[in-house]
Design a protein that fits this description.
126 residues; mainly beta; 11 strands; 47% strand; globular
Length: 126
Amino acid sequence: QVQLVESGGGSVQAGGSLRLSCAASERTFSAYRMGWFRRAPGKEREFVAAVNWGRGTTYYADSVKGRCTISRDNAKNTVYLQMNSLEPEDTAVYYCAADRRSGSYLYASTLSYAYWGQGTQVTVSS
């Protein structure tokens, strides 16, 4: 059972930046694909960014492309989400997700991740 703990959320003004962190309890962290999702009030959970294992290919939702960067530090068992130029529409609870099942998968689908953190709140004021 992989445990994921997010941190780094908070309240910022529009245009500000935050860096979210997700620490994993798994020693084979490098074998996991990692993702960030978010859920805004009254909306479904949606994909934000993902990073594959191995070469670390990254993927982004169109809504955050150019403003967010996902990265991973396998030595620290941690994945990061650097968010810049934040907008009020980015206000949501942000969740970290992980999976290591083999085979093809949709990186933007919640079904592609078996393990989830508890979430960290990000609030962006105008």
